[in-house]
Amino acid sequence: MKQAPIGVFDSGYGGLTILKELVNRLPQYDYIYLGDNARAPYGTRSFDTVYHYTLDCVKWFFEQGCHLVILACNTASAKALRTIQQNDLPKIAPDKRVLGVIRPTTETIGRFSETKSVGILATSGTVASQSYPIEISKFFPDVKVYQEACPLLVPLIENNEADNSGADYFVKKYTGNLLKKGSDIDVVLLGCTHYPLIKKLIQDSLPSGIKIISQGEIVAESLADYLARHPEIEEKCSKTGSRQFFTTDSAVDFDNHGTQFFGEPVQSRHVDI
Questions:
Q1: Which residues of the chain fall below pLDDT 50?
Q2: Among the options 57, 66, 150, 192, which is catalytic?
Q3: Which of 62, 85, 93, 249 has CA atoms 20 to 30 A from the CA of 162?
């Protein structure tokens, strides 16, 4: 058994907000990050396409030696994770594990709401999957879940338009639509890993009593708990505190955008998948 880094995957840059929290919580581990930027965004693609793209990337991580891969992408977690866990892993890598970001979030989100009414802002793909309402109902059957698809937020963020009036207009539009669906919402989950970059904009568009929950800290705490409960996986994760970054598109572009998401400079390499 050879130790290897923990793999962290996203269709683009957003997963870097998850990786940032993983590093903050578990800095001793080595991490490999892969952004499938050449085929992003995943949010508007079909279930079958997202599944095949995600499986391609999971196999790439396995080729790098990774024993554990985190899908730090809500769309991939919603549209591909279960099939990969149930159908593919037993055939191609029964001793390896692939985890997502939706399950850890849904296990805890209900605890934040006093009105038992939760709003979710997410990509069209994540909303269409119904993953959040389905999973939340398993842990908090008394919690009402309202969703709003926000198809333009990711392009605005990735094109550095988040500080302009256009972003403000669409944030207000989406949050307004959400509150029309559930007037008693007291918690809003940012169901896309890009959205923490505009958290203040979203907060300012909501009534002051509504709490906003980002996934990064929840996922990091969940991973710490998972590794503590699964020593057979934990002992396979290398621990030198290294970080590696890869992208399927331009490394220069990834580094420029990635620094914004990760909060410190990143230096990536291009890979073909």
A1: none
A2: 192
A3: 249
d(CA 84, CA 240): 29
Per-residue model confidence (pLDDT) at position 163: 84
184-241 tens-digit pLDDT: 999 999 999 999 999 999 999 999 999 999 999 999 999 999 999 999 999 999 999 9
Which residue has 């554990």 as its token pair? Answer: 68
What span, in angstroms and rounded, lies between the C-alpha atoms of 242 and 161? 32
Place of tokens 């029964």: 94
Phi, psi of 146 (to 5 degrees): -120, 135
In which order are the strands placed within the sheet that holds 243-247?
Answer: 97-99, 68-71, 6-10, 31-35, 243-247, 268-270
Name the one residue in this structure whose structure tokens are 């909303």: 127
pLDDT value of position 33: 98
Of residues 57, 73, 150, 237, which has the active-site annotation? 73
pLDDT of residue 56: 98
66 included as an active-site residue: no
Beta strands in the chain (DSSP E): 6-10, 31-35, 68-71, 97-99, 117-122, 144-149, 187-190, 211-213, 243-247, 268-270
Question: Across the strands, what pairs with 121?
Answer: 148, 190
Neighbours of 139 (CB within 10 A): 14
| DSSP code per residue over 86-102 | IIIHHHH-TT-EEE-SH
